[in-house]
Design brief:
The protein is an all-beta fold. The chain has no helices and 13 strands.
């Protein structure tokens, strides 16, 4: 696999240091794109089998943009997040002597991703500092596997996370964290091996809560 990559970007600090912006534009040209696939075959006993294999697509172009930001309008509030857009396409993908590039898509490559996080700091009425956090992230449709199975494809989805941290002192703190609070079911990977009748999907963690504390010696 060979990659020629061009990237330009800027890092900016504005509004007296309260606003930070990091941006980037990139353009990548691939040759012999390496792909992980499952190859089916017939075993000596006549039963179907498969093995993990690597193959190559001839050429591909990937370009896009990214933006990260951090804004602190006051000492109590902090807003951060990121945006990214990507366009990935095969220019050459030879399958049994035919270029099928226009029928193929990159696996695990969302066209759009975004996240935003809001944090607030305040003096706790029972002493110490109370930090609260709320975050939302979004990812557009992806195909987890190179065979582009619609059964395994994951449509666009958002995840909601939140947390509370009580810093009782510089040494002692307690936290309550919640992840995937809407209990969204979303696929992260899978197997589609038609010759064996195998169609398996793997999912991300469901709604979870974590309670704990830390003490610094």
């Amino acid at each position: 696999e060979k990659l020629d990559s061009l990237e330009v970007g800027a890092k900016m600090v504005l509004d007296g240091g309260r606003l930070e912006l990091n941006s980037a534009l990139f353009h990548n040209k691939y040759k012999n794109v390496q792909l992980s696939v499952f190859t089916s075959y017939t075993q000596p006993n006549g039963l179907p089998g498969f093995f993990g294999d690597f193959t190559n697509a001839g050429k591909a172009t990937v370009y896009g943009a990214e933006l990260e930001f951090l804004w602190m309008p006051s000492p109590a509030w902090r807003l951060s997040g990121n945006l990214s857009g990507i366009h990935a396409k095969y220019d050459e993908y030879i399958d049994r002597g035919v270029n099928v590039a226009d029928q193929k898509k990159f696996s695990n490559t969302p066209k759009f991703q975004a996240a935003i996080n809001i944090e607030h700091n305040a003096q706790a009425p029972f002493g110490g500092l109370l930090r609260s956090r709320l975050g939302v992230s979004y990812r557009s449709k992806v195909y987890p596997t190179t065979d582009l199975s619609e059964s395994l494809a994951q449509s666009g989805y958002a995840l909601l996370n939140a947390g509370l941290i009580w810093e009782r002192s510089s040494r002692l703190s307690f936290f309550l964290q919640g992840a995937n609070l809407t209990n969204k079911a979303y696929k992260t990977d899978g197997y589609n091996i038609a010759s064996l009748g195998v169609l398996d999907a793997f999912y991300g963690p469901p709604r979870t809560y974590t309670v704990g504390g830390t003490y610094k010696f």
